[in-house]
Amino acid sequence: MNDNSPESVASVLKVFGILEALSESKEIAISELSNKVMMPKSTAYRFLQTMKSLGYVNQEEDSDKYSLSLRLLDLGNRVLDHQNFLAIADLEMRKLRDKTKETIHLAVREDDQVIYINKVASEQYSLCLTSKIGNQANMYASGLGKVLLAWLDEESKNKIVDRINFVQFTSKTIMSKQAFLAELEQVKQCGYGKDDEESELGLRCFAVPIYNRLGNIIAALSLSTSIFRCSSLEDEQKLVAELHATSAKISELIGLNK
Questions:
Q1: Percent of the chain with pLDDT over 90
Q2: What is the DSSP string of 140-209?
Q3: How many CB atoms sit inside 10 A of residue 87's CB?
Q4: N or C: which end of the chain has fewer CB within 10 A?
Q5: Residue 9 φ then ψ, to 5°
Q6: How far is CA 57 from the centre of its chain?
Q7: Of residues 152, 154, 136, the one with CA closest to residue 144
Q8: Which CATH number fits domain 74-253: 2.60.120.200, 3.30.830.10, 1.10.3720.10, 3.30.450.40?
Q9: Domain ranges in the chain?
Q10: 194: which residues sit within 8 A by CB, 6+ positions away?
């Protein structure tokens, strides 16, 4: 069945109708619920059982009464956290941009993809950056990708790396699984990821992790500059220190301390 078919749309409407009906009562019997949403009891029961198996609905033992679970509250809190996170991160990213005069990115990992969720471009000079919010960052040729992979458990990390199709962008691009895994170990040791002209000649990027209160990495923050503006180890260390300071500040402000 096509996801855009009338049947699919009708099913989605029924699910949200049931959720809204459940939200109006602490608990509700299936007969009353079916009347409220105007669907046969058998159909309502089928939807409720599926929602129950997914953890969104509770059912009293030996009863036909149903109620919403706290999982929806958890989803709502995640949305609020995400919105607060972006707002706070954007402000701190702008401060970092103004201080360093460089372009700042924020990204998260979604399965095998690294997605830009915010970008604050330098107002002082222009780099040839094609990055856009919502687009993918390169997994193996970006500091962001390296940071978001480096601290994963070995099994998850290897599964993702196994699926990478290594394409050479410059003479410095990492081109093998073994070399990339070694690079990820180096990232863990030094605490930050680096793209040293691996995606584009003349461009250097540094990235650091942002942690939640459980010590898990929830995002990566990066700074992009040119080889002319960052030409020494001292320059690199200064920029990375600024990145770490901003990352720590973002975590502190959103209450997601390492």
A1: 50
A2: SSSHHHHHHHHTS-HHHHHHHHHT-----SSTT---SHHHHHHHHHHHHHHTSEEEESSSSTTEEEEEEE
A3: 12
A4: N
A5: -60, -45
A6: 27
A7: 136
A8: 3.30.450.40
A9: 6-69, 74-253
A10: 143, 146, 187, 204, 205, 206, 207, 236
Task: Kindly provide the b/e burial profile for residues 151-182, where b requires at least 16 CB atoms within 10 angstroms of the residue's own CB.
Answer: ebeeeebeebbeebeeeebeeebbeeeeebbe
Amino acid at 228: F
Strand order in the sheet with 65-68: 28-29, 65-68, 57-59
pLDDT tens for 6-24 read 666 778 888 888 888 888 8
Residues 124 and 249: their CA atoms lie apart, in Å, by 24
142-182 pLDDT, tens digit per residue, is: 999 999 999 999 999 999 999 999 999 999 999 999 999 99
Is 168:175 a contact under the CB 8 Å cutoff?
yes
Strand partners, 193: 207
Tokens of 133: 């919010």
3-state secondary structure string, 72-91?
Answer: HHHHHHHHHHHHHHHHHHHH
Class of domain 6-69: mainly alpha
| 43 three-class SS | helix
